[in-house]
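User: Study the shape:
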Amino acid sequence: MTGDQFINLAHQVEVGGRTYAIEAPGNAEALTRTGVQRGDHNPAYWAHLWPIAHSFARFVAETQWITPDSRVLEVGCGLGLVGLVAATRASHVVMTDVSAEAIAIAQRNAACNSITNISTARYDYNDPPDPSWRPDLILGSDLLYAPSAHQPIGALIRALSVPAILADPNRIPADNLEADFDAMGLSVWQTQIDGGRVFVVEGRSL
């Protein structure tokens, strides 16, 4: 991706009393439309700063699940807003996405905001997790767009044996999340946020 596809500081987002500068591709709509037309598995949805990311970032800025000692793994980081907010409260954040382009922009946004306790990795949650990851918490925004996503995300949570907080913009497929995760030995409770809901997921004995 070349520099002329960016609008520098395209988004100024205030969360928790701090303003974050979030760069994004200047042609995000075209990137996504082209990907959909080609039938891409991931048609550049990462290129947009979705409303649920704003709401989830505000939740992350206040949640007691993150402490100064927390090691956080974010799945599907997109442009990186949620991970950046988490990094201002945690010890370290690993931001991951299936898209190499998303990872590159997330790195840029970390640098733009002078946030250094972040690392990035390209990761598909359908694969086994990196055995070196030792997070205390998993974060994910807008991952539950299809029932087929529930099993691999649940499997990741079980494999890492840590709680997860997942944000969703009230998509119908996520209505079945609690039943799907219950069958996997995971407990779920939810709370409402602006424009959606947050699922808190923890393991339990089968």
Remarks:
- Residues 100-112 form the longest helix (13 residues).
- The mean pLDDT is 91.
- The domain at 48-203 is CATH 3.40.50.150 (Rossmann fold).
- Helices lie at 28-38, 51-62, 81-87, 100-112, 150-160, 177-182.
